[in-house]
Amino acid sequence: MTFGETTEARLENTRRSVAGKYINRILCSPWCVGFFGILTFVAFAFSLEIEFYTFVALYTVFVGLFADDLAPIMPLFIFCYITPSSGNNPGLSSEGLFFGTTAIYLVCIVSVAVVVLLLRITLDKEFGLRRLFTTKRALLGGMISLGIAYFLSGITHEKYLEYANGNLLFAFIQFASIFVLYFILSATVKWDRFDPDYFAWIGLIMGFVVSAEVLYLYATNYVIADGVINRSNIYTGWGCYNNIGALIGMSIPFAFYFAAKKKRSSIFLIIACLLFMMVILSGSRGSLIGTFYTLIACFIFTDFHGHYKKEYRITAMTIVSLIGVVALIFPYQLAEIFNQIPNIAHIEGGSLVMNDSGRFDLYKQGWDVFLCYPIFGQSLYPIEYEMSSFSYSEQFNSFFPPRWHNTIIQLLASCGIVGIIAYGYHRISTFVLYAKKRTLTNTYIFHFMMTLLIMSLLDCHFFNVGPVLFYSIALAVMEFGNKDVKKKF
């Protein structure tokens, strides 16, 4: 027996001990997720990102050594994503956390954590390296196809070599964000013991944390001036009001999930309504549209399939009645709240005019780019005249290129027919998977997925790292993490 095998055997004995089993129950509990949620908000509010990321790296090392499997790392990715404070936004400042010596430090601690996880995957006899490459994955083909389309983006453009480095880097980031977590977790989580509630708590507590960040911004960032909401001041180190509203909206299906399963369904229905109010306060019109779908779809599904229908329906009728009473007593005040959000449309000269923030012109331009480069697209990095036509918030920075604010237009303009076919393959694969495993858990994951996709028709969410990392984990849970596969809806 080698030294490595001896060490792994001792660690395995520790994991199987009474203390080890107790620790593992804590690691995959809502209390642990809530603890990370609190740390995330504290780090955001007091600019303690370095301390938080250091703790996360140490926690990851602990998981790699002593956890029963790698499920406890699931919440780390989304919480790390929503941690940066407004002053460390890499698109607004070149002197923040992600530059200079602090960036080198972050790379070092992340590298240590990754090495420990890789060693665990390699040495663990139960789900070792072999299982990583032998696990059957229904969504793998669609993901690989999408990755190939990303890497071939703009390859026939006459100026491709001038932009190849940035283009390939962004292609790698996009492919890695949708592929890596799905690929690794599918083989390194003991799914027969996995509780889907754990993933749902991650999604719900994510919504709590982002909502708390919104309220913090209202209190500290001069969001309201002279009684008017200035949504341009609703920004963090990881995104603006649109990104913020999207993540809150994506958390709402998980509130309904618990409303369907838990005895106190009324509490979670109220939470879902409060999260919807926080989407309104985010000032994001696209998120509001996507979340409106979520609210209606999840509300109806939970009414039919919830375990505690009586309590749920009484609470629902009470909420609707209260909203009606408030609307009758305070109609102007209620209207003023919604008036703070930039109108989607207005009447001008007797005609309906859409307030699209230039998106329709952007979509037309993206379509024209597709017509010029129909096979592989122009590039993930818009080339030539397109770059100067984006709004000020989408100017090129050191990380993300300007994007087309619509998943379909983005794929057509950037990856051409090859990209849209690959995306179609991936999308059909996910729908087929849901059809085969239409469980209670998967239905709410499906609504989460639809919320993301609808909002991505108006913004860049499917080409942002954070939402897609969470989406990648969700797909792994949808495919492997359900004990009630035979019970379909």
Index terms:
single chain; 489 residues; mainly alpha; 2 domains; two-stranded antiparallel sheet
Tell me about this structure.
The protein is an all-alpha fold and 489 residues long. The protein has 2 domains: 1-127, no CATH class; 139-243 and 277-285 and 330-345 and 355-489, no CATH class. It has helices spanning 3-16, 18-27, 30-46, 49-66, 74-81, 100-123, 129-134, 140-151, 160-188, 196-220, 241-261, 265-282, 285-305, 309-329, 331-339, 359-372, 407-436, 440-455, 465-480, and strands spanning 224-225, 228-229, 345-348, 351-354. It has a two-stranded antiparallel sheet. Helix 18 (440-455) packs antiparallel against helix 19 (465-480). The model is unreliable at 385-398 (pLDDT under 50).
